[in-house]
Design goal:
Radius of gyration of chain B: 20 Å
Radius of gyration of chain A: 19 Å
CATH topology of one domain in chain A: Rossmann fold
Strand content of chain B: under 5%
Largest sheet of chain A: 6 strands, mixed
CATH class of one domain in chain A: Alpha Beta
Number of domains of chain B: 1
CATH superfamily of one domain in chain A: P-loop containing nucleotide triphosphate hydrolases
CATH architecture of chain B: Orthogonal Bundle
Number of helices of chain B: 12
Helix content of chain B: over 70%
Number of strands of chain A: 9
Number of strands of chain B: 0
Structural class of chain B: mainly alpha
CATH class of chain B: Mainly Alpha
CATH architecture of one domain in chain A: 3-Layer(aba) Sandwich
CATH topology of chain B: ABC transporter involved in vitamin B12 uptake, BtuC
Strand content of chain A: 25-35%
Oligomer: heterodimer
Largest interface: A-B, 26 and 26 residues
Shape of chain A: globular
Shape of chain B: globular
Distance between the termini of chain B: 50 Å
CATH superfamily of chain B: ABC transporter involved in vitamin B12 uptake, BtuC
């Protein structure tokens, strides 16, 4: 298997303070990988580094067969203005931006794909609803429908299942597994280790530095978790005090 | 009766017809921009930009007197300079857009008042601040109509990215490089329409015709198209009513127009079906879905 993304001595951070330090890892193409680690371990920062929103302080993110245009990204806290007068269809159809751009016509065939994506996340019948009237779980379904339409070879999800009900989570995990089945590469930041064990074959554990990366059962061990917590507690102060990672 | 009250002033006096045409042009050009200002929670930005235009218009006045061209160009330059500088500062420093914009427009405004008061009389200052809708000449009308046409055209071109930039800027940045272009194009639209508006209504009142109809429309429509339609209709009706009130009761026309728009806002606030006070107080039946 070839690597979809390779992190090479990657250091990412804000205001020159590293949040991810000297990371070396390769994410295989078509893999379904969970990123876990304590709070402040740099998980979200790593995804921002992949999207290019954050430039590396050192090292690089190398894309194998992919490019940045192949990425679909679901941020942890979307900046969506829920009071904006948009319907579910409007928001989901934005997923077609790369195809239709600022002037392209939606047309009947694309509209059918929009409806199919809405159906795939179980929101048929909600098409005309204003986004302001949706619950948190329904909104997350809408965002997944938009990701579906983006048809990306690399999907980045930042805590996609936080603060949603179990039923929604089950449905959305089915969408993630569908991506995996279609050979797309999926990277998801997750907190719940039970979910990771059940549904994610690979895991990358991060505590500013790499703790472990590989098959989930090898990574999610008590020993690794203890080590990650210790490494992060060592980093509890200002990041530049953080032992050797500041060197 | 109705003829005398509503139609006769326009039939009899050319300056009333010109004023109405000017106001309709401003309503069509500026009000849709105001709808987006409101949706982006930038309603007060319009106000700040209006103040920023003042020194440009004042320099134009200083150089060429009450010249339409010089004051227009001056206003455009000053407005764009403030928009670009504050946008630049926001993007490269930690200062948020509202603070950087406030800083630049306050500097700009002080400069403007200084320039006007060293050279002009109070009458001139009043002209710049409150406009001369009842004294629009051919050149001014052509300018207002051109600005309105250009504004509608540009808005149509950037409509989709602008909606996306308002609703989900993060997403737009992730799929396209148009975010910054869209933002600055939109600010340019704001400046352009304010400069057009200040010839008729003055720098301060021009913001009123931009924002008040948009705010009123929020209580009647819940789609973007609906908001723009309602806002433009409110703006045109306010212009018409305001001009008539100013004619019959000898009121200054700019403030009269804006106050009518303000009343439209007040009525909408109370009676509007989308979140108006009455609609909120009366329990509604649940919808099917």
């Amino acid at each position: 298997m070839s690597a979809a993304i390779a992190f090479e001595n990657l250091t990412l951070g804000y205001d020159r303070l590293p949040a991810v330090s000297r990371l070396d890892a390769a994410i295989d193409e078509g893999s379904l990988t969970a990123i876990v680690g304590p709070n402040g371990a740099g998980k979200s920062t790593l995804l921002k580094g992949v999207t290019g929103a954050l430039a590396p302080l050192d090292g690089k993110v190398r894309f194998g067969s992919l490019s940045r245009d192949d990425i679909a990204y679901l941020p942890q806290q979307s900046e969506i203005d829920r009071s904006f007068p948009l319907s579910v269809v409007d928001l989901v159809a934005m997923g077609l931006w790369r195809e239709i751009g600022p002037f392209g016509w939606l047309g009947r065939a694309r509209r059918a794909r929009v409806d199919a994506a809405i159906a795939a996340v179980g929101l048929t019948g909600f098409e005309a609803r204003p986004i302001g009237s949706l619950s948190g779980g329904q909104m997350q379904r809408v965002l997944f429908a938009r990701l579906l339409l983006q048809d990306a070879r690399l999907v980045l999800l930042d805590e996609p299942f936080t603060a949603i009900d179990a039923r929604t989570m089950t449905d959305l995990i089915r969408v993630v597994q569908r991506w995996h089945g279609e050979g797309r590469t999926v990277l998801a930041v997750l907190h719940d280790h039970e979910t990771v064990r059940t549904h994610f074959p690979d895991t990358l554990m991060l505590a500013r530095e790499l703790v472990a990366h590989g098959p989930t059962s090898n990574v999610l061990t008590a020993e690794n978790q203890f080590r990650a917590r210790q490494m992060c507690e060592a980093c509890a102060g200002p990041p530049h005090d953080c032992g050797k990672s500041a060197a | 009766m109705i003829w005398e009250a509503v139609f006769q002033p326009f039939a009899e006096f050319g300056f009333m017809r010109r004023a109405l045409l000017g106001c309709v042009a401003i309503s069509i050009g500026a009000t849709p921009v105001g709808v987006f200002l409101m949706l982006r929670r930038m309603s007060l930005t319009g106000d700040a930009m209006a103040h920023a235009i003042l020194p440009g218009a004042a320099v134009g006045y200083l150089v060429a007197g009450l010249s339409l061209g010089a004051m227009t160009i001056g206003g455009l330059v000053a407005g764009m300079a403030v928009a670009l500088l504050s946008g630049f500062v926001t993007r490269v420093t930690a200062l948020r857009e509202d603070a950087s914009l406030a800083a630049f427009y306050l500097i700009s405004l002080a400069l403007g008042v200084l320039i006007v008061s060293t050279r002009g009389s109070n009458v001139d200052l009043m002209h710049v601040l409150f406009g001369t809708v009842l004294a629009l000449d051919d050149a001014a009308l052509i300018l207002l109509c051109s600005i309105a046409s250009l504004s509608v055209l540009i808005l149509a071109l950037v409509f989709r990215p602008l909606v996306l930039e308002c609703a989900d800027p993060q997403f737009l940045r992730s799929v396209s490089g148009l975010s910054a272009v869209t933002h600055f194009t939109f600010l340019a639209l704001v400046v352009m329409n304010l400069v057009g508006g200040f010839h008729a209504l003055g720098t301060l009142m021009a913001v009123g015709i931009m924002i008040l109809p948009a705010a009123a429309a929020r209580f009647w429509a819940d789609s973007i198209g609906g908001l723009i339609t309602v806002a433009v209709v409110v703006a045109i009706l306010s212009s018409l009513t305001g001009l008539l009130l100013s004619y019959h009761y000898s009121l200054p026309s700019g403030p009269a127009i804006i106050l009518v728009a303000g009343m439209a806002y007040g009525v909408s606030l109370i009676l509007g079906p989308v979140g108006g006070l009455v609609a909120q107080a009366v329990p509604r039946r649940h919808s099917e879905t």
